[in-house]
Protein backbone atom coordinates (compact mmCIF):
# COMPACT_ATOMS: atom_id res chain seq x y z
CA UNK A 1 0.00 0.00 0.00
CA UNK A 2 2.85 2.38 0.84
CA UNK A 3 4.34 1.82 -2.63
CA UNK A 4 1.00 2.58 -4.32
CA UNK A 5 0.67 5.78 -2.31
CA UNK A 6 4.23 6.79 -3.29
CA UNK A 7 3.57 6.16 -6.99
CA UNK A 8 0.33 8.13 -6.96
CA UNK A 9 2.00 11.00 -5.09
CA UNK A 10 4.78 11.01 -7.68
CA UNK A 11 2.27 11.12 -10.55
CA UNK A 12 0.40 14.03 -8.98
CA UNK A 13 3.72 15.76 -8.31
CA UNK A 14 4.59 15.52 -12.01
CA UNK A 15 1.21 17.00 -12.97
CA UNK A 16 1.74 19.86 -10.53
CA UNK A 17 5.43 20.29 -11.36
CA UNK A 18 5.22 24.11 -11.85
CA UNK A 19 3.88 24.53 -8.32
CA UNK A 20 6.60 22.33 -6.85
CA UNK A 21 9.24 24.22 -8.85
CA UNK A 22 7.99 27.57 -7.54
CA UNK A 23 8.07 26.14 -4.04
CA UNK A 24 11.65 24.92 -4.55
CA UNK A 25 12.61 28.43 -5.70
CA UNK A 26 11.01 29.93 -2.58
CA UNK A 27 8.30 31.79 -4.54
CA UNK A 28 5.21 29.68 -3.96
CA UNK A 29 4.55 30.72 -0.35
CA UNK A 30 4.30 34.39 -1.33
CA UNK A 31 1.95 33.58 -4.22
CA UNK A 32 -0.18 31.38 -1.96
CA UNK A 33 -0.45 34.06 0.73
CA UNK A 34 -1.83 36.45 -1.88
CA UNK A 35 -4.39 34.19 -3.58
CA UNK A 36 -5.54 32.15 -0.57
CA UNK A 37 -7.76 34.88 0.97
CA UNK A 38 -9.71 35.12 -2.31
CA UNK A 39 -10.22 31.36 -2.34
CA UNK A 40 -11.19 31.30 1.32
CA UNK A 41 -13.74 34.07 0.86
CA UNK A 42 -15.62 31.89 -1.63
CA UNK A 43 -15.05 28.66 0.28
CA UNK A 44 -16.37 30.01 3.58
CA UNK A 45 -19.66 31.08 1.98
CA UNK A 46 -20.24 27.46 0.92
CA UNK A 47 -18.90 26.06 4.19
CA UNK A 48 -21.14 28.30 6.30
CA UNK A 49 -24.19 27.30 4.27
CA UNK A 50 -23.50 23.61 4.78
CA UNK A 51 -22.30 23.89 8.39
CA UNK A 52 -24.59 26.66 9.70
CA UNK A 53 -26.60 24.42 12.02
CA UNK A 54 -23.45 22.86 13.47
CA UNK A 55 -21.86 26.26 14.05
CA UNK A 56 -25.00 27.57 15.74
CA UNK A 57 -24.99 24.50 17.98
CA UNK A 58 -21.28 24.88 18.75
CA UNK A 59 -21.47 28.55 19.70
CA UNK A 60 -24.87 28.42 21.43
CA UNK A 61 -23.41 28.47 24.95
CA UNK A 62 -20.83 31.23 24.40
CA UNK A 63 -22.72 33.62 26.74
CA UNK A 64 -22.07 31.21 29.63
CA UNK A 65 -18.42 32.27 29.59
CA UNK A 66 -18.92 36.02 29.96
CA UNK A 67 -16.28 37.27 32.38
CA UNK A 68 -16.39 39.82 35.21
CA UNK A 69 -16.52 42.73 32.73
CA UNK A 70 -20.05 41.75 31.72
CA UNK A 71 -19.08 41.49 28.03
CA UNK A 72 -17.72 38.43 26.31
CA UNK A 73 -14.06 38.93 25.38
CA UNK A 74 -13.33 36.63 22.42
CA UNK A 75 -10.07 35.95 20.61
CA UNK A 76 -10.30 34.24 17.22
CA UNK A 77 -7.08 32.57 16.12
CA UNK A 78 -6.70 32.10 12.37
CA UNK A 79 -9.65 34.39 11.75
CA UNK A 80 -9.39 34.34 7.96
CA UNK A 81 -12.21 36.39 6.42
CA UNK A 82 -14.33 36.56 9.58
CA UNK A 83 -16.64 33.70 8.63
CA UNK A 84 -17.62 33.03 12.25
CA UNK A 85 -18.67 36.57 13.11
CA UNK A 86 -22.38 36.13 12.45
CA UNK A 87 -22.52 33.25 14.94
CA UNK A 88 -21.18 35.29 17.87
CA UNK A 89 -23.54 36.88 20.42
CA UNK A 90 -24.38 40.59 20.32
CA UNK A 91 -21.98 42.84 22.21
CA UNK A 92 -19.13 40.37 21.96
CA UNK A 93 -15.70 42.05 21.99
CA UNK A 94 -13.63 40.38 19.24
CA UNK A 95 -9.88 40.38 18.68
CA UNK A 96 -8.53 38.54 15.62
CA UNK A 97 -5.16 36.95 14.96
CA UNK A 98 -3.90 35.61 11.64
CA UNK A 99 -0.38 35.22 10.23
CA UNK A 100 -1.51 36.38 6.76
CA UNK A 101 -1.87 40.19 6.56
CA UNK A 102 -3.73 39.86 3.25
CA UNK A 103 -6.85 38.83 5.18
CA UNK A 104 -7.27 42.26 6.74
CA UNK A 105 -9.30 43.87 3.94
CA UNK A 106 -11.72 40.93 3.91
CA UNK A 107 -11.94 41.07 7.69
CA UNK A 108 -12.86 44.76 7.61
CA UNK A 109 -15.73 43.93 5.24
CA UNK A 110 -16.99 41.23 7.63
CA UNK A 111 -16.81 43.66 10.54
CA UNK A 112 -18.96 46.12 8.60
CA UNK A 113 -21.52 43.38 7.94
CA UNK A 114 -21.68 42.33 11.62
CA UNK A 115 -22.47 45.49 13.56
CA UNK A 116 -23.70 43.44 16.53
CA UNK A 117 -20.05 42.84 17.45
CA UNK A 118 -17.52 45.16 19.05
CA UNK A 119 -14.37 44.67 17.00
CA UNK A 120 -11.19 45.38 18.96
CA UNK A 121 -8.19 44.79 16.67
CA UNK A 122 -6.50 42.61 14.07
CA UNK A 123 -3.07 41.22 14.98
CA UNK A 124 -0.70 39.69 12.44
CA UNK A 125 0.80 36.75 14.31
CA UNK A 126 0.84 32.97 14.43
CA UNK A 127 -1.21 31.06 16.97
CA UNK A 128 1.99 29.59 18.36
CA UNK A 129 3.27 33.04 19.34
CA UNK A 130 0.51 35.38 20.53
CA UNK A 131 2.73 37.58 22.67
CA UNK A 132 0.58 40.65 21.88
CA UNK A 133 -2.21 39.08 23.95
CA UNK A 134 -1.79 39.27 27.72
CA UNK A 135 -1.98 36.28 30.06
CA UNK A 136 -5.49 35.42 31.23
CA UNK A 137 -7.02 38.31 29.31
CA UNK A 138 -9.81 36.66 27.28
CA UNK A 139 -12.96 34.71 28.12
CA UNK A 140 -13.05 32.60 24.97
CA UNK A 141 -10.67 31.53 22.22
CA UNK A 142 -12.11 30.28 18.92
CA UNK A 143 -10.21 28.23 16.36
CA UNK A 144 -11.97 26.78 13.29
CA UNK A 145 -10.21 25.03 10.40
CA UNK A 146 -6.86 26.15 11.81
CA UNK A 147 -5.30 23.22 13.70
CA UNK A 148 -4.86 21.51 10.33
CA UNK A 149 -2.29 24.08 9.25
CA UNK A 150 -0.37 25.26 12.31
CA UNK A 151 3.24 24.18 12.70
CA UNK A 152 2.77 22.97 16.28
CA UNK A 153 -0.61 22.00 17.70
CA UNK A 154 0.92 21.56 21.14
CA UNK A 155 2.39 25.07 21.12
CA UNK A 156 -0.81 26.78 19.96
CA UNK A 157 -2.81 24.99 22.66
CA UNK A 158 -0.27 26.13 25.25
CA UNK A 159 -0.77 29.69 24.04
CA UNK A 160 -4.55 29.26 24.19
CA UNK A 161 -4.30 28.17 27.81
CA UNK A 162 -2.02 31.11 28.57
CA UNK A 163 -4.33 33.83 27.22
CA UNK A 164 -7.55 32.32 28.63
CA UNK A 165 -8.70 33.46 32.04
CA UNK A 166 -9.37 30.70 34.60
CA UNK A 167 -12.69 29.14 33.68
CA UNK A 168 -12.50 30.42 30.10
CA UNK A 169 -13.21 28.20 27.11
CA UNK A 170 -11.58 27.14 23.85
CA UNK A 171 -13.96 26.39 20.96
CA UNK A 172 -12.85 24.33 17.96
CA UNK A 173 -14.24 22.98 14.68
CA UNK A 174 -11.66 21.12 12.58
CA UNK A 175 -11.42 18.71 9.68
CA UNK A 176 -9.29 15.69 10.58
CA UNK A 177 -7.96 12.38 9.29
CA UNK A 178 -10.51 9.76 8.30
CA UNK A 179 -10.52 6.30 9.88
CA UNK A 180 -7.38 4.49 8.79
CA UNK A 181 -9.25 1.55 7.24
CA UNK A 182 -11.23 3.69 4.78
CA UNK A 183 -10.66 4.68 1.16
CA UNK A 184 -11.08 8.27 2.24
CA UNK A 185 -7.97 7.96 4.41
CA UNK A 186 -6.09 6.33 1.52
CA UNK A 187 -6.80 9.32 -0.74
CA UNK A 188 -6.04 11.75 2.07
CA UNK A 189 -2.56 10.21 2.26
CA UNK A 190 -2.10 10.31 -1.51
CA UNK A 191 -3.13 13.95 -1.86
CA UNK A 192 -1.68 15.34 1.39
CA UNK A 193 1.67 16.70 0.04
CA UNK A 194 0.06 18.54 -2.87
CA UNK A 195 -2.89 19.67 -0.76
CA UNK A 196 -0.41 21.14 1.74
CA UNK A 197 1.12 23.37 -0.91
CA UNK A 198 -2.12 24.29 -2.66
CA UNK A 199 -3.97 25.31 0.48
CA UNK A 200 -1.42 27.26 2.49
CA UNK A 201 -0.06 24.52 4.74
CA UNK A 202 -3.29 22.59 5.33
CA UNK A 203 -2.82 18.92 6.29
CA UNK A 204 -5.45 16.28 5.45
CA UNK A 205 -4.23 13.56 7.83
CA UNK A 206 -3.94 15.25 11.23
CA UNK A 207 -5.49 13.53 14.23
CA UNK A 208 -6.11 16.82 16.02
CA UNK A 209 -8.29 15.28 18.72
CA UNK A 210 -5.20 13.64 20.20
CA UNK A 211 -3.51 17.01 20.76
CA UNK A 212 -6.66 18.32 22.44
CA UNK A 213 -6.83 15.28 24.70
CA UNK A 214 -3.21 15.83 25.74
CA UNK A 215 -3.69 19.54 26.46
CA UNK A 216 -4.13 20.67 30.05
CA UNK A 217 -7.82 21.53 30.04
CA UNK A 218 -9.98 20.82 33.08
CA UNK A 219 -12.89 19.76 30.85
CA UNK A 220 -13.08 18.62 27.22
CA UNK A 221 -16.32 18.22 25.25
CA UNK A 222 -15.30 16.72 21.90
CA UNK A 223 -17.38 15.01 19.23
CA UNK A 224 -16.55 13.42 15.88
CA UNK A 225 -18.85 13.89 12.90
CA UNK A 226 -19.06 13.44 9.17
CA UNK A 227 -19.67 16.99 8.02
CA UNK A 228 -22.32 17.51 5.31
CA UNK A 229 -19.76 18.82 2.82
CA UNK A 230 -19.52 18.27 -0.91
CA UNK A 231 -15.88 17.19 -0.78
CA UNK A 232 -15.50 13.83 0.95
CA UNK A 233 -11.81 14.36 1.73
CA UNK A 234 -12.66 16.94 4.42
CA UNK A 235 -15.88 15.46 5.77
CA UNK A 236 -14.29 13.91 8.89
CA UNK A 237 -14.52 16.63 11.56
CA UNK A 238 -14.23 17.19 15.27
CA UNK A 239 -15.95 19.95 17.18
CA UNK A 240 -16.58 21.06 20.73
CA UNK A 241 -15.05 23.14 23.48
CA UNK A 242 -12.59 22.82 26.34
CA UNK A 243 -12.55 24.70 29.63
CA UNK A 244 -9.36 25.92 31.24
TrEMBL record:
Keywords: Acetylation, Membrane, Transmembrane, Transmembrane helix. Pfam families: Methyltransf_11. One of its GO terms (molecular function) is S-adenosylmethionine-dependent methyltransferase activity. Residues 75-172 form the Methyltransferase type domain. The chain crosses the membrane at residues 6-28. InterPro entries: Methyltransf_11 (IPR013216), SAM-dependent_MTases_sf (IPR029063), Thiol_S-MT (IPR052356). CDD domains: AdoMet_MTases. This is MET7A protein. It comes from Crocuta crocuta (Spotted hyena). The gene is Mettl7a.
Amino acid sequence: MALIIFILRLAIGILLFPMYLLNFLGLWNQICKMWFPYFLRRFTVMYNEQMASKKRELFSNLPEFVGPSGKLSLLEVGCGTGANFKFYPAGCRVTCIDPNPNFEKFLIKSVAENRHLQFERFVVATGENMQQVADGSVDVVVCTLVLCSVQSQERILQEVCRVLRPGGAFYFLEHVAAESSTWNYFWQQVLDPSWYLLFDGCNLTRESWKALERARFSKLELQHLQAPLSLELVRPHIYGYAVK
